[in-house]
Amino acid sequence: MKKLKAQIDEWSAKIDHLKAKADKAEAEAQAGYLEQVEELRQKQRDAKTRLEELQASGKSAWEELKADAESALHTLGEAVRAASARFKW
């Protein structure tokens, strides 16, 4: 649980960094970057929701919800890595 939370926090910091870069981009590129940041924020919210569900679950639902939380976290991580690659200018 702590590991998942720490990973979400790490990705959140990277999203904040990408948002700061997007805010400094030229007007033409800025809209696209901000759209990507919003998509990342949605994936971040999804991962946090899964983690909250995992925290609130009983032992019987633990394994199923753990897999959902890990999947959401993996999706977020892949999206952050892809966006980071596109944000290099």
3D structure, described in words:
By secondary structure, the protein is mainly alpha-helical. It has helices at about 1-25, 25-55, 60-85. α1 (about 1-25) runs antiparallel to α2, α1 packs parallel to α3 (about 60-85) and α2 packs antiparallel against α3 (about 60-85). The longest helix has 30 residues, at about 25-55. The radius of gyration is 15 Å and the shape is elongated.
Class derived from helix and strand content: mainly alpha
Roughly how many Å is the radius of gyration?
A: 15 Å
The helix count comes to 3
Largest β-sheet summary = none
Order of H and E elements: HHH
- Percent helix range: over 70%
What is the number of strand segments?
A: 0
Descriptive labels:
89 residues, 91% helix
Topology (elements, then pairings):
Layout lengths: L1 H23 L2 H30 L2 H28 L3
In brief, what are we looking at here?
The chain is an all-alpha fold. The protein is 91% helix and 0% strand.
